[in-house]
Amino acid sequence: MSFVLTCPHCGVREVADFAFGGELSSRPRETPTLRELCEYNYFRRNVAGVQREWWYHRSGCRTWFQAERDTRTNHVLSVWLPGERDEPGDGGTSAELGGSVQAEGTP
Amino acid sequence: MSRLPLQPGERVDRSQTLTFSFDGKPVAALRGDTIASALFAAGRRTFSRSFKYHRRRGLMCCAGNCPNCMVAVDGAPGVRACTEPVREGMQVEHLNASPGLELDGMAITDKLGGPFTPPGFYYKTFIRPRRLWPLYEWVLRHAAGLGRLPQRQAERTWRTEYRRRHTDVLVVGAGHAGLSAAIAAAELGADVVLADEGPEPGGRLLWEGGHAQARALADRARAAGVEILSSAPALGHFDGLVPVWQGDTLHQVRARQHVYATGAIEQPLVFPGNDLPGVMLSSGAWRLAALYSVRPGTRAVVASTSDRGLLAASALRELGVEVLAVADLRHTPSAAAQALRAQGVEVLNGWTIVGASGRRAVTGATLAPVADASANGASGTGPRELSCDLVLVCGGEAPATALLAQAGAQTEYDPARGHFRLAQLPPGVWAAGDLAGDGDEQLVALAGERAGLAAAQALGLGDERSASRAAELDAQLHDSTRTEETPAPALATGASPKGKAFTCFCEDVTAKDIRRGVQEGYDSIELCKRFTTVTMGPCQGRMCQLSSIRLMSAETGQGLEQIGTTTARPPWSTVPLGALAGRPIEPAKRSSIHGVHRQLGASIKWAGDWRRAYDYGDPEGEALNVHRAAGLIDVSTLGKLLVRGPQAGQFLDRLYPNRLSNLKPGRVRYGVLNSDAGRIMDDGTITRIDENTFYVTTTSSGAGAVEQWFSWWLADWKLDVQLADVTQSLCAVNLAGPRAREILARLSDADCSPEAFAYLDARQARVAGVQSLLMRIGFVGELGYEIHFPAAYGEDVWNAILKAGEPDGIRPFGLEPQRILRLQKQHIIVGQDTDSESTPFGAGMPWAVKLDKDEQFIGKWALQRFAEAPAETALVGFTVEGGHVPTEGAVVLDHRGAAAGQVTSARRSRQLERVIGMAWVPSALASDGQLITISDNGERFGASVVTEPFYDPAGELLRL
Amino acid sequence: MSLAFLTPDVTASREVLARSPMERLAVDAGARLSRVEGWSMAKAYSEPSIEWERLTRTVAFADRSSLTKLELQAEPQELAWIVAPASDGGGLKLEPGMAEHVTGTWWCPVTPSRVLMLGESGQAPALRATLEQAAEEARGTVTVLDVTCGLAAMSLIGPGARELLARFCAIDVRPALAPPGAFRPGSVARTPGYVLVEAEDRLLVLVGWALGEYLWQVVADAAAQLGGGPVGAEALAHYRDRDDA
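YS: structure for the whole thing
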């Protein structure tokens, strides 16, 4: 793997500069059933195609951001800071713990 | 040393002679010679022995493509003699032949041949009996191969430099097209790097009579600012990063646009005896003559499927090589064929070569008409045998698409030319020249220029003039017809082939082997490749991919377009592993006190990405001294985070399962971090500095992960909290032992009395004059102070403490004694005593989880479930009777003797005078006094469970 | 309690010296050390003529770990307000990618809400005091941290400076893309770091303090291939004076 990513702050860097944070998922908003908890903790969509995911510029400005990447070609379509693209009602400074680790669209 | 008369484009300098040795004997050379040209000029025809059959192999491609001339240079194997320039005094040795090249004992495998060496032979034969495999392996490894690496490399005599090169445009291949592309892009202002395998730019212009033009183009490119890398093969295309290997430098080229002009590779023909020394690719012989002024032979027979072979024959004829006959597979004479005929050369259209013979080198060739040929111009209809010392073959050309394929280009079969041509290019990647089938010299140059313009335009460079030039080029390129027919060579007809006909020269795979592979069911190209190893040798398919696909097509009846090609994989060119290994300096973190540890004779070992002092020669004694007097350990590797802001307490309450928002300034609390699945991730202490500021320590190895974890949740929750990782800013030492208080009091302005500075208190004070944060914590089980201070003072503060403690008998202690001490207290080390499945309940720390706290926190849902259902296994302490120290990882057996847990830590404690440890055991056994059985490398012994700390179970010493 | 334990307090004591993490390797390379503002500094390594040759003809490197380094965190709109009194009335753009050199300090925006300040060690107390004062008066949460001992620093100087960096760093610092002032957080020698283009022929490289010795090894190894070597504070000061003139 040696594609490049564009950090929203620092610009283009080698992918080795970054830590991969996995695909975006949503944390349950209230006490989940066992099944929901297991799905949240252990199940990933693992798509072959465009995926929204977390990246951390570990070797640079140490900022978490989100990206849209085609997992088949490693082509990164876009990057943004968390919150910049959240659907209305998601994100923000909710005092509630649940909910905002969310950006992937609801079905 | 015989040479041709002075050639206009020759690369050798006749005024300068050099001497090198081959197998210990001196060889004379001219400056500019390659090892191969000098050896050939000196009369050598056998350059290597083949991989499996140990057949003689001679020069074939003279372009660094085939494996035939691989030698060892100054002990390094795998060097191609045909491209490696001669250096004065270099020592060259043959590979893979014993006792020597001329008499090789292993050549017997060629005579026995057949039953012993078909593909898959060793998988099938040497599988039984299994216990003999090590012997078989030893024999096989010595029988085959391409040279041997020296067993020891006492001193690294060569090194690799790594160089990152960012550029606008990378052009790979400096032939006519590549040079034209580089010039076009650079003259529009692009930053251009041009990388080429050859020692000078120009590609085939250099030997086809265009050397003056090549040099002029190279000068123009340099004038336009192009950085030209010669003798520099590109190794692969990795998502836009192209490593270029140049002698001792690996250029890692990151370009925004790529132009590939890697040319086409002349293909051999498959017929019995096609590997004899003296059977050469037509371009190889031409290069040898034109660049090094060496006559490749005197009497030549030519077999070609395209004009390339005919042009080479014509050129060699002018240099005094007698051309006896030319077999041209095409039925209709081309202009080149007619020109040869006009010179009096016999051209047999519709003919091909069906065999070559000779013992040490080729002495004869057999030509025959192809099936159903109405042999236009042939002077006979039966096979003809000719006596010769050179056979020139040209089986058409295969575009060198491998790098482009790695970049994502698609290829498709082109029946008119009998090869796979480019079909579709990925964005930002351009192709020109022979690679793209651009045809004659003029068109190659125009296509190159067009590609260079395209790359520049894609970067936003250029103006109206360049745009109109591009349009003009498009029109010219569109109008020209570029379809020289070069049919796929039919396999030899009529005559039953006797002897081996090789498709793969690297791995000694014959046409028969491919047929056998297909018959055994390996009828897809990828399977056949793996079964026969065709295309897997050093040539990486340059010589064999096309012919093996043709053979498969003939055997399976499928078209070549159905069969397709194997996946192109890096490296495209041979490269020493050392070139890829990176600078031989490991990124090691070192505490600021590291130099003192070395002076004190510490044994230094890796601990994560840190270099740490494991002990100072006496780990058990060092541990004991902490109990008896005092010890000082460098714990600078601890992760250290500052968490600041009005919501800092709330933030930590969400991350840790216990309460931290109610921690008072100046107090310390232990915390264990869990994942949302309720598994232990890390642990450490949290100290409240002031209302808004918390100081968090993590494990040494977990520092980076915890910082990421914290900032990840913060990125999402967007609380009014700021984070700072100060791990490396601060040195930290732990001063511990019954004398610790007195020693600290001597050095510090802090009130060290137990009342003013109690267990789990934190204080700000000067130590040896340096502003420090002091925390009373007891990881090692004695009265102890962790002192954190600016890293720049590491050495001086460390030395000051040791000096101040001298009267009390202070000694430094390392990581190993610390492990003994903490084990006595059953303090866990995350990652050592826990794994990704461990929960705080299983690890015996239910007190670290406050399920009743109001706030939501990470891991709460999972931990609630764990709290309800008892854990299957639990982490407990144990002591061993008899003094055996079990290996970490030894198995704990249940009552039936089945594996039910494992030992995570075990040490001998001199303080306690017994062997102690920690292990995961079934919950039923997790109570004091239970006997467990430990199985350690086949040995079994008993141990008894201890759930409380072995040393000072009530924790009184910590609180003194 | 406060965060004073992060600050190397040069007035602290005559007994202790602040030392660069590269000190031992510098001494091995022939450094002559002396005490400057509480720091042990390498004044020179070789003959002045040799060091001058490195600075002007090949490539030189110099340990600059004693630079004062402060980190300021605040909301973007607050940041500009806080830095104003310390930066000659402000007007700093603070856009990631470009640093500005004002009142002897490099103001390097890492993100819109985080600025790294680099200055000579003598200026530290005044700069810190001004910032802390402004932070007190700010409305939102502001953190002023002394990260002097968090980052080891090395200058690469001379005609070969950019080429030397390219031997161990993948960040693109071609002159057209990285003019003086360009500030690039990113991986340096396979470890988190920053690159600041101080001048056309002068790059400042920063990595974690604990990696200082490692950085020296890498830079010295690569510089030797380019005919370069270390220079001390004296030659560097002389060179910069000439530059400024």
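YS: worth flagging: Residues 12 and 180 of chain C are 36 Å apart (CA to CA).
IM: good catch. Also The mean pLDDT of chain C is 93.
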